[in-house]
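User: Just a sanity check before I run the rest of the batch. Below are the structure tokens for the first item. I only need the designed sequence back.
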């Protein structure tokens, strides 16, 4: 199997690289923004044609949620129009596509775990452009698989866990929002789930949810990080209203994982177990 992975230098792309780099049964090409500039959509199909992939794992995205509010054009190019080009390539050449999306396609007003059929209503530019990307993929490549995920972290790149570790080492107190509810996703777990889907005997197209198990706030997440690392730092809960940001965040984005578990026999680890595994690793770049 010949696989192209976009967003190769990101959290998910880095975890996929670790899992695939020594796989002798797959011919893998890891493309970062230099090899595949997603904001230059006129180049995308020609670049993909150089590799002739059987499968594209589209992990690349514009993920600067607050910055997207003032950079709509760039966010839309990367999250929407690049997805359209990739989906068109897949349709023309018969390639399979697994694309990663986000819980930010929801408005956060639910009180129960969100399944794949829950109404979408993004409340920020990032979510709007990601939803537009989903729709473009479904239009041009209806046989694709889209995986919505949330609160991604990893030993690689920039993320909440690494930020908290840095701040807690420097400060006596950190303030963390306690009224946004969801579940974190360890990028390595998501990468393993994606590869299990890629290797599955039956390709089952559609939208799927994936995050770790559990229901927590960012405050709960921060307390667990502190306790695992034994930082001498007070974690103070604060409401979203006390920490205004350019982009609104969903208040509730807990994802129901029943569909992906049943379709691909995927076991989803509890968030605390995955956090412990990540923190046991050396934190990378």
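Assistant: Here's the designed sequence for the first item:
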């Amino acid at each position: 199997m010949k696989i192209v992975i976009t967003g190769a230098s990101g959290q998910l792309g880095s975890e996929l690289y670790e899992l695939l780099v020594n796989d002798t049964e797959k011919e893998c090409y890891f493309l970062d923004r230099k090899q595949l500039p997603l904001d230059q959509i006129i180049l995308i199909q020609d670049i993909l044609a150089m590799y002739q992939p059987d499968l594209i794992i589209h992990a690349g995205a514009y993920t600067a949620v607050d910055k997207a509010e003032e950079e709509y054009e760039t966010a839309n190019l990367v999250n929407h129009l690049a997805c359209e080009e990739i989906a068109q390539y897949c349709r023309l050449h018969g390639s399979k596509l697994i694309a990663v999306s986000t819980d930010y396609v929801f408005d956060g007003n639910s009180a129960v775990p969100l399944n794949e059929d829950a109404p979408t209503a993004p409340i920020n530019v990032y979510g709007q452009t990601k939803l537009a990307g989903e729709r473009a993929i479904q239009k041009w490549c209806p046989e694709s698989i889209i995986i919505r995920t949330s609160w991604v972290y990893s030993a690689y790149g920039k993320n909440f866990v690494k930020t908290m570790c840095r701040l807690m080492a420097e400060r006596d107190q950190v303030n963390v929002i306690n009224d946004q509810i969801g579940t974190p996703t360890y990028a390595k777990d998501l990468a393993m789930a994606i590869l299990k889907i890629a290797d599955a005997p039956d390709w089952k197209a559609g939208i799927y949810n994936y995050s770790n198990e559990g229901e927590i706030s960012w405050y709960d997440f921060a307390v667990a990080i502190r306790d695992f690392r034994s930082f001498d730092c007070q974690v103070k809960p604060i409401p979203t209203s006390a920490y205004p940001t350019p982009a609104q965040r969903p208040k509730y984005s807990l994802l129901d994982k029943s569909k992906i578990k049943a379709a691909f026999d995927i076991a989803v680890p509890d968030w605390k177990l995955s956090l412990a595994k990540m923190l046991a690793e050396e934190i990378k770049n």
